[in-house]
Amino acid sequence: MPPPSLPAARDPAAATTTARRRSSKEGGAAAAKVHPAPAEKEGKKMGAATAAGGGESGWRLPEWCSAAGVAGILRRHPLPALFACGLLLFMAVEYTIPMVKPDAPPLDVGFVVTQGMHDAVAARPWLNSLLAALNTVFVAMQAGYILWAILFEQRPRAAVAALMMFTCRGMLGCATQLPLPDEFLGSGMDFPVGNVSFFLFFSGHVAGAVIAAADMRREGRVALARLYDALNLLQVVRLLACRGHYTIDLAVGVGAGVLFDTIAGWYFDAKNADGKNAHCRSCQCHKALLSH
Prior knowledge:
By secondary structure, this protein is mostly helical. The protein is 66% helix and 0% strand.
């Protein structure tokens, strides 16, 4: 078989066709290697920047600022939207509501709501003593559960949370001493037993019950935790009716219970961070208290 170059050499027309094909291929490759002009490059860069930044300044309004975006937020996040409305509402209320006069008693909505119960208890001293005794039993139940958790189940988180909470309560009570309500209905059966003086802000009764209930939920004792929550709610109503606490004392008591239970959890997580139980949500990992 003759080499490919031999027919081309013998046939001048075939040689011309082959040369033309080579010339067209080389021309296409050269055209592909041609670089765009600097002006074209700059124009493409500016166009990309404009598309990404929304304009020459590089900033544009977020998507949620449009009507469709606001509607989407209301649909997907109704709770934060409700809080935003509450912010606007109470900003208007706070700047327009009349202040309580210095010589007037505090205005407490909880006292207003429980006025009927207060009158009933005030007219029946035996009922006041009975409610006080029942409340003292509930406080003993809280303390008993927390002590049981640390002494018999070796889970100290609730006890440490209670220690933190009562220490903070004592500091705040000394820092700001609130006046005892004029309609306070004291009883020798109440806790502290003997109708002695006590701090109003914040409620240790409520905070202790919250700490105990939180520990119960972590251990799967959901029914017992719900019972403590219900008794805590009854305790709140009784304290308001007997004027043993202001409403703000009780509300902050709930928050304090949650706060110090969380802080106690952080404390033990940090203590156990170098072990296999780090970041364990169960109180079983807090048995290492005595080893540190």
